Amino acid sequence: MFALNGAAIGTLLLGAQESLVDVQGWTMIWTFVWFVVLLVVLGRFAWKPLVSALESREQGIRDSIDEANRAREEAQALLADHKKKLEDADQEVKRLLEEGRQQAATVKEQIIEEARSQAKSTVERATREIDLARDEALQSIRQEAVDLSVALASKVIRKSLSPKDHEELIRESMKELEL
């Protein structure tokens, strides 16, 4: 049916004699004048506030970046400080554990040495008591043996020995028993 191209539509809308690129002198001058007026008005009333707003925004962004950098540096310093404190605490814990082990070993050795010393003194005391009891028992046995010997000898020899002979016999018996 009807097929229209772009040139045909332009001819229909503008009329047959006008073209789309028709330059009119006064329209061009008025367009230029209005453009300059628009630039002056925009430059005076809109440009300065826009530039000012952009500069203040730029300064705000710079301040935010600087503050963020300072905060990052401060955070890194705090992190390093906390790491150092953790390392120091770790070293302190290790030192305290080692010190505790050494003290435990020292106390253990002291307890063992004290137990050995007490055991040795107990054995020595028991040995002395045993020796003393043995000596007392031997002395008692000797005394009883002497007494029995004297009693027996005196019964047997009562009539034949004089008191002096009797004492001499007792002394000799005692010497023999002591050996």
Arithmetic mean pLDDT: 83
Helix/strand-derived category reads mainly alpha
Overall 3D shape: rod-shaped
Q: Work out the number of β strands.
A: 0
Largest sheet: none
Helix content: over 70%
Low-confidence stretches: 6-14
The figure for the number of domains is: 1
Beta-strand portion reads under 5%
Query: How many helices?
Result: 3
Radius of gyration (CA) equals 66 Å
Distance between the termini: 164 Å
Give the helices and strands as they follow along the chain: HHH
Summarize the structure.
The protein is mainly alpha-helical and 179 residues long. The chain contains 3 helices and no strands.
Topology:
Layout: H1 6-14, H2 25-157, H3 163-178
Helix pairs in contact: 2-3
Commentary on this structure:
- The protein has one domain (33-178).
- Helix 2 (25-157) runs antiparallel to helix 3.
- The model is unreliable at 6-14 (pLDDT under 50).
- It is rod-shaped, with a radius of gyration of 66 Å.
- Helix content is 88%, strand content 0%.
- It has helices spanning 6-14, 25-157, 163-178.
- By secondary structure, it is mostly helical.
